[in-house]
Design a protein that fits this description.
Elements: H1 2-88
Membrane topology: Single-pass type II membrane protein
Keywords: Cell cycle, Cell division, Cell inner membrane, Cell membrane, Membrane, Transmembrane, Transmembrane helix
Function: Essential cell division protein. May link together the upstream cell division proteins, which are predominantly cytoplasmic, with the downstream cell division proteins, which are predominantly periplasmic.
Length: about 110
């Protein structure tokens, strides 16, 4: 009877030790997988942040180009306004070819 009880204690102790090893192994795997997931999430964050910065630079370039186009549009609009006001308010006009004289300067020989 003592032999059976000793064997049961040994098998129970072995079973408990095996269960502890399995539990610790599972916990270690969970900790490692959690660490790898943290590293992966940091990688994704940095990748997305780089992409975000690229898009922000593109946005700034497009806004600068938009400002230049607005200035160009205002310049062309001002030219038309100047021509219209010159004709209406100052009664300016382009002279006909009969009233146009072309003056050419004499060319000097190169020395």
């Amino acid at each position: 009877m003592k032999a059976e009880s000793v064997e049961e204690q040994i098998s129970t102790t072995d079973r408990l030790a095996r269960n502890k090893i399995i539990a610790y192994s599972i916990l270690a795997l969970l900790v490692l997988s959690s660490a790898f997931m943290v590293v992966y999430q940091v990688y994704l964050y940095r990748h997305d942040f780089r992409e975000f910065n690229t898009h922000m630079r593109d946005r700034e370039d497009i806004n600068a180009e938009w400002g230049r186009l607005l200035i160009e549009q205002q310049t062309f609009g001002a030219t038309a306004q100047i021509g219209t006001r010159a004709v209406t308010q100052l009664r300016m006009y382009s002279p006909p070819t009969a009233q146009t004289a072309v003056i050419s300067l004499p060319t000097t020989p190169a020395k």
